[in-house]
Amino acid sequence: MTGLSLEDCHLCTACELASTRQTVVISRGNPNADLMLIGEAPGAQEDDQGIPFVGRSGRALDQLLREVDLDPSRDLYICNAIKCRPPNNRRPKKAELAACRPWLNLQLEAMNPKVIVLTGATAVEAILGIKGGMTQLRGQWQSWNGRAVMPIFHPSYLLRNPSKAAGAPLDLTRQDLAAVRHRLCEPWTASNSAP
Ligand code: URA
Ligand code: SF4
Q1: Class of domain 6-185
Q2: Where are the domains of the chain?
Q3: Is 40 close to ligand 1, i.e. is its CB under 6 Å away?
Q4: How confident is the model at residue 187 (pLDDT cuts 50, 70, 90)?
Q5: Tell me, what's the pLDDT at 193?
Q6: Which atom of ligand 1 approaches the CA of 119 most closely?
């Protein structure tokens, strides 16, 4: 793909979501960070503002990140598997994920993250090609193109399951993010930095 730049994404009409979106939602955070978080798709507020994870889910996510000492604007780059909002927040279709993949690939290439966090089953399926329940998948390190990958519960799931009890989804997610933070402090050896 020669000459494709992330700026062009704002004009993309490669899938049917182009006709219903308000804005194309590309990223927030630090493009030079070692950590990249990939969500599912923009929701209503993201579509409105053109920034990922700015609604209720985003606020819950930012709070969790801060709780493990990760600064949302300094320590990671945040984006989604697809850049335009699906009508009524339905799950993205396979064809839409495929159509949008070149933009995500461009982000992955440009940011070259050491660690990737995937929030929810759609992001896990899109990147790792694994289908499954997040209860099984979360908290287990995976690898993708030499990068460490951590699947976590989607923040919207955490909003529906707000128990603060030890071992509840919120607590588990905090543990997963703490493991991610830990991993970021480890040296990036040749064996796990290969593309
Ligand atoms: N949920 C997501 O997966 N991404 C967003 O940007 C907002 C909510
Ligand atoms: Fe293009 Fe992705 Fe938006 Fe579809 S979702 S129009 S592929 S940017």
Answers
A1: alpha beta
A2: 6-185
A3: yes
A4: confident
A5: 47
A6: 3
